[in-house]
Amino acid sequence: MRLIFLGPPGSGKGTQAKMLGESLHIPQLSTGDLLRAAVRGGSELGREARKFMDAGKLVPDDLVIQLILARMQQKDCEGGFILDGFPRTLGQAEALEKAFIVKRITIDAVISFEIEEHELLVRLSGRRVCPNGHGEWHIRFHLPSNPGFCDVCHAPLVQRADDEESRIRVRLAAYRKDTEPLKKFYAERKLLRPIPADGPMAAITQQIETTVKQLR
Ligand code: AMP
Question: Do 111 and 5 meet the contact criterion of CB atoms below 8 Å apart?
Answer without folding.
Answer: yes
